[in-house]
């Protein structure tokens, strides 16, 4: 147990931010600390519960974006509301850019890893949960159409499992945007790819027999997005975003944002 806890601390300390328990599991498998099985995963979860309660592992080490509150914002006073506005105010820095982009991810758990990086650039993250519903795709199509009507190029960067359903889900989205909603969206898969599987030596698994697309699958062993180091995923997201930024226009709006925030701060302090 001491060896397992030491390995967990080593992984958590090396990460720049939170990871999921599933990510931790695959990292431990890659280090040959535990075996790759659902039983081992359940046992790991049990140990982590014990260690978090004892203080050996910090409560906030892991991300979980599958649960949230639904509540309107409320304030104690006008000054409180203005202070919140000062702290949260952000300009739409993409307003003068030629691109509108979103990061789409297959799994809720991975969204918690991706969102801080994407949101730091004002880029939205959408959790598709495999095959996205037509209703969600319709709403997304309207957003993308507004961007393309404004002369922008609409792009989705997608992160998902490398398996029959993971690949088919992306193809289904592209088809829906093209055929059902008649909107031009560039769809680019950034994870998981064959190159990443080879380079990072990611743990593989057999094709699930329950997957109805397995018979036509020619991609070999499958790989889950959770096996990729969170830092690698964050870097992919960051690189995908920054390559599209016109730095001069971006910095000009950043200066405008700061001046506007100072105006708001003055209003708050005068209340």
Can you lay out the helices and strands and say which pair or pack?
Blueprint: H1 2-14, H2 21-30, H3 38-54, H4 78-88, E1 99-105, H5 108-120, E2 125-127, H6 134-149, E3 153-159, H7 164-180, E4 186-191, H8 194-200, H9 230-242, H10 247-270
Parallel strand pairs: 1-2, 1-3, 3-4
Helix pairs in contact: 4-10, 5-9
Describe this structure in words.
It is a single chain. The chain is of the alpha/beta class. It has three domains: 2-61, no CATH class; 72-97 and 246-271, no CATH class; 98-244, Dna Topoisomerase Vi A Subunit, Chain: A, domain 2 (3-Layer(aba) Sandwich), CATH 3.40.1360.10. Helices cover 52% and strands 8% of the residues. It contains ten helices and four strands; from the N terminus they run ααααβαβαβαβααα. It has helices spanning 2-14, 21-30, 38-54, 78-88, 108-120, 134-149, 164-180, 194-200, 230-242, 247-270, and strands at 99-105, 125-127, 153-159, 186-191. Helix 5 (108-120) links the parallel strand 1 (99-105) and strand 2 (125-127). The model has no long low-confidence stretch (mean pLDDT 92).
Question: Care to give the gist of this entry?
Answer:
The protein is an alpha/beta fold. It has helices at 2-14, 21-30, 38-54, 78-88, 108-120, 134-149, 164-180, 194-200, 230-242, 247-270, and strands at residues 99-105, 125-127, 153-159, 186-191. It is 52% helix and 8% strand.
């Amino acid at each position: 147990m001491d060896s397992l806890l030491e390995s967990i601390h080593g992984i958590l300390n090396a990460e720049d931010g939170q990871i999921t328990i599933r990510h931790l599991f695959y990292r431990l498998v890659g280090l040959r600390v535990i075996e790759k099985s659902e039983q081992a995963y359940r046992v790991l979860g049990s140990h982590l519960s014990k260690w978090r309660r004892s203080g050996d592992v910090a409560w906030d080490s892991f991300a979980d974006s599958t649960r949230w509150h639904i509540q309107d914002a409320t304030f104690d006073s006008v000054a409180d509301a203005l202070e919140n506005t000062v702290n949260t105010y952000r300009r739409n820095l993409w307003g003068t850019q030629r691109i509108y982009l979103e990061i789409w991810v297959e799994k809720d758990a991975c969204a918690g890893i991706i969102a801080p990086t994407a949101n730091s650039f004002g880029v939205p993250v959408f959790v598709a949960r495999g095959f996205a519903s037509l209703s969600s795709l319709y709403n997304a199509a309207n957003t993308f159409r507004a961007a393309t009507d404004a002369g922008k190029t609409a792009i989705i960067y997608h992160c998902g499992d490398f398996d029959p359903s993971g690949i088919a889900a992306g193809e289904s989205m592209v088809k829906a945007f093209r055929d059902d909603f008649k909107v031009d969206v560039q769809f680019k898969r950034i994870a998981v790819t064959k190159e990443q599987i080879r380079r990072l030596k990611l743990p593989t698994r057999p094709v699930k027999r329950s997957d109805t697309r397995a018979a036509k699958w020619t991609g070999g062993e499958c790989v889950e997005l959770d096996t990729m180091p969170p830092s690698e995923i964050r870097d992919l997201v960051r690189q995908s975003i920054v390559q599209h930024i016109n730095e001069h226009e971006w910095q000009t709006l950043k200066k405008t944002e700061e001046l506007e925030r100072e105006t708001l701060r003055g209003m708050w302090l005068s209340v």
